[in-house]
Amino acid sequence: MSAPVSGPAAPTPVNPRSRVLIASLIGTTIEFYDFYIYATAAVLVFPKLFFPDSDPTTALLSSFAVFGAAMVARPIGAVFFGHLGDRLGRKKTLVVSLLTMGIATFLIGVLPTYAQAGWAATALLVLMRLAQGFALGGEWSGAALVATENAPSGKRALYGTFPQLGAPLGFIIGNGLFLIIGALLPSAAGADPTQPSEAFTDWGWRIPFLFSAVMVAIGLWVRSRLVESAVFARTRQSGQVRKLPLATVVQGHWRQLVLGTFIMLATYVLFYLMTTFSLSYGRAAKDADVPGLGYSYTTFVLMMIFGVLFFAVFTLVSGPLADKYGRRTTLIWITAAIVVFGLVWVPLIGLGTLGVVLWLVLGFTLMGMTFGPMGALLPELFPTSVRYTGSGISYNVSSILGAAVAPFIAVALWETGNGSPWLVGVYLSAMAVLTLIALLLGKETKDVSLDGGEIPAADAHTPAAPVTTSGP
């Protein structure tokens, strides 16, 4: 008797390109929204609500210290979620990281203040902030892998800009919501325009944190419909999944870890100076102990949002440039421009309101140009079996060296400069020089296959053939 002949196996599901882009974008938008509404509250109300026994400068620095504490938790999250992502897959890990972030952000919205619970309230704020950082440590690399591992050939950098686009979109949504709430809540007659209203300080600040629950629900629905990338599926089917991805990446790819960390350094410092520090500097009164620009909160945030629009546009612009000219070449030129920007931003600010707007526009434009290619470059440094862990560690260790200390150092340098931020600009330029050195020591990754090896020259920019993946 002849054995029954089985028909061809049914094709397994594949991620449509629209689903890939939306899933990588919406998750990072929510994560960055959650992360940066804290940054805004850290400037506006948290010094008064959670550190009231300190003088204004010390309270602000304490609030920034809690902000920076999350950056310390991010590498821990990168290791934890990287292990899950490299062992179990990208989809499940992204769902867990988003859920963790959403719960922590919602709970910040219901925390008691120092007046209600004393230092226990401050401790709870620190705990929730650590949870935010822990979750974000696993979010970015997973979203970048969803985009780049599903990208057609020759368009990895373009696809990699979509998770990066979540940063400006999250900033705009979060600060836009703060603006709307502030506009709807009444202010007392004769109140200081640089300070939030009493109603906003009492309860209005909680609304953006509570609203995150709605956004997280949408994000979870989108991500639950993803299937694993073909690249990871092939790694799993070939038995190349590592039992301990962290040990593998540290032992075999430590040079890439170091280079990736310093390649991200200027990006982190620039972004947190242009968002967190600039909000403090822009709102500080001109006759304060540490003088600033003296703009009202509403006016300056509108100026910032205008600048962030350039951040979003040039994040997308950077992708095709990095695909055409290479990630390393593009970033070398942009990083050199950041060095110059740090040295000239005080003369720009001195030109008045037009100069301040130009300062914000140039800073956020450079931010988009340097941030966009990272979505492709960092994953391309590592093989599939440790890509989630390796790219996540580089990205998030850099957050300690750059973002965790940037607002704190900036305020100290601002105070040292007697109200002039020229030392802050020098600090940015110095960090950009370190990034420039790392880029010069690194190699171009544009033609590196995510399955390993070099892409043949004849195939480097041809459309990718459809691929199948394992099931959800």
TrEMBL record:
It is found in: Cell membrane. Keywords: Cell membrane, Membrane, Transmembrane, Transmembrane helix, Transport. The keyword Coiled coil does not apply. InterPro entries: MFS, MFS_dom, MFS_trans_sf, Sugar_transporter_CS. The chain crosses the membrane at residues 20-39, 59-81, 93-111, 117-136, 165-185, 205-222, 257-275, 295-318, 330-350, 356-381, 393-414, 420-441. Residues 20-446 form the Major facilitator superfamily (MFS) profile domain. Pfam families: MFS_1 (PF07690). It is a multi-pass membrane protein. Its main location: membrane. This is MHS family MFS transporter. It comes from Streptomyces olivaceus.
